[in-house]
């Protein structure tokens, strides 16, 4: 949507998701590049309401990166590119000393000065309150009434080892419509070799269980049900066993075992002829495929048949056609921004999903832009019940 939207056109909304962990490890290069691209996206779409869901805020060494997080937030709130956004809410989970609560999630919401009437839900008081000014909340988000934050129960974590995974939910009302925005971070694949063992992988099952937990929580009986958008780092992966069998269909496999444990250490796939050229080398944290172009050509659509994790939720979650290449794992070298790292099989980890009542949208790469029509589909004029977007 180019140009500034008017009231007649509807309220412009832009949803963005980004795993920003690496930005805080290289603030001088990666962070500045990311912010420049982000500002250009905002200027291009000129949304009235902007939601940015971040995961891994602070990176791997959160305590050391706190100053970088602070400067990142200050830059977003005070930059010239965002000066027309007169109201903001920033929620940062900074309680890194509490393993049972820390998720490293960050949710940013910006409201344009032209949007006169927007309310946010108070989950404690169970009512909407008008949004005024700019506020930043951190530390113990569990007690913040304007959101719900949960880390997954410990028995959901692989081997019951804590990691920074969970969700943050906020609820908003504008243009006579109410909707939930859920920032989510699901479990990753710890080992390429384990992911290869069976189809679907054990990691896929763990993510399925966690996502089901989130959907049950945001649609339970505690609050009125409204349309919802769940966007973040789902860590969805291609079916590893099936995609490798497809990529290496004419290759022979060599298994290399560790001398001390006899456990599989690596798998090497070689062409049957052509001097037995190595097609793929697979290790716990290595996925070295001979031709990365297959993941970029035509946005990698030839591999979408192996993107199956969302199919388990086809009755509860919807997604528009994917028209961008796999979002992970891009190189963290700012000079090789279009290259994938040789650590994991490229996959569409970062997604924007929605309930049935919120699916008629316009999708853009790793962000979502759409217009919401005032009062459309509203069954009760006195309630923020339902929204239909067009």
Automatic annotation (TrEMBL):
Residue ranges of every copy of the Inositol polyphosphate-related phosphatase domain listed in the record: 9-378
Enzyme Commission designation: 3.1.3.56
Transmembrane segments: none
Broadest EC class assigned to this enzyme: hydrolase
MF GO annotations: inositol-polyphosphate 5-phosphatase activity
Biological process terms in GO annotation: phosphatidylinositol dephosphorylation
CDD domains the UniProt entry points to: INPP5A
Source taxon at top rank: Eukaryota
Family under the similarity heading: Belongs to the inositol 1,4,5-trisphosphate 5-phosphatase type I family.
PANTHER family for this protein: INOSITOL-POLYPHOSPHATE 5-PHOSPHATASE (PTHR12997:SF10), TYPE I INOSITOL-1,4,5-TRISPHOSPHATE 5-PHOSPHATASE (PTHR12997)
Protein name (database record): inositol-polyphosphate 5-phosphatase
């Amino acid at each position: 949507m180019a140009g500034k939207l008017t009231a007649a056109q509807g309220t412009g909304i832009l949803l963005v998701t980004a795993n920003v962990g690496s930005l805080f490890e290289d603030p001088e290069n990666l962070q500045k590049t990311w912010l420049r691209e982000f500002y250009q996206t905002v200027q291009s779409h000129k949304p009235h309401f902007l939601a940015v869901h971040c995961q891994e805020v602070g990176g791997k060494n959160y305590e050391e990166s706190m100053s970088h997080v602070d400067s990142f937030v200050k830059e977003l709130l005070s930059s010239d590119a965002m000066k027309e956004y007169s109201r903001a809410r920033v929620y940062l989970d900074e309680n890194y000393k509490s393993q049972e609560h820390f998720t490293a999630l960050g949710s940013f919401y910006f409201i344009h000065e032209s949007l006169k009437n927007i309310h946010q839900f108070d989950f404690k008081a169970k009512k909407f309150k008008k949004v005024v000014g700019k506020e930043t909340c951190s530390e113990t988000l569990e007690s913040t009434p304007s959101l719900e934050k949960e880390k997954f129960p410990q028995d959901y974590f692989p081997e019951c080892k804590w990691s920074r995974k969970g969700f943050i939910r906020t609820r908003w009302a504008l243009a006579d419509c109410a909707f939930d925005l859920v920032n989510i971070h699901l479990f990753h694949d710890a080992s390429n070799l384990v992911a290869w063992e069976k189809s679907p992988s054990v990691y896929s099952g763990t993510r399925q269980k966690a996502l089901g937990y989130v959907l049950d929580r945001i649609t339970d009986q505690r609050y009125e049900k409204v349309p919802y958008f769940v966007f973040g780092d789902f860590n969805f992966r291609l079916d590893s066993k099936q995609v490798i069998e497809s990529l290496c269909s004419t290759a022979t496999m060599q298994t290399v075992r560790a001398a001390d444990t006899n456990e599989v250490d690596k798998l090497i796939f070689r062409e049957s002829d052509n001097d037995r050229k190595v097609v793929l080398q697979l290790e716990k944290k290595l996925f070295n495929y001979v031709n990365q172009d297959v993941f970029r050509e035509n946005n990698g659509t030839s591999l979408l048949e192996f993107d199956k994790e969302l199919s388990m939720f086809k009755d509860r979650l919807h997604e528009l056609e994917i028209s961008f290449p796999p979002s992970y794992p891009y190189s963290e070298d700012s000079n090789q921004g279009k290259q994938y790292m040789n650590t994991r099989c490229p996959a569409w980890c970062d997604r924007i999903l929605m309930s049935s009542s919120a699916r008629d949208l316009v999708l853009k790469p790793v962000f979502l832009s759409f217009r919401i029509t005032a009062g459309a589909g509203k069954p009760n004029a006195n309630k923020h019940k339902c929204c239909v977007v067009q």
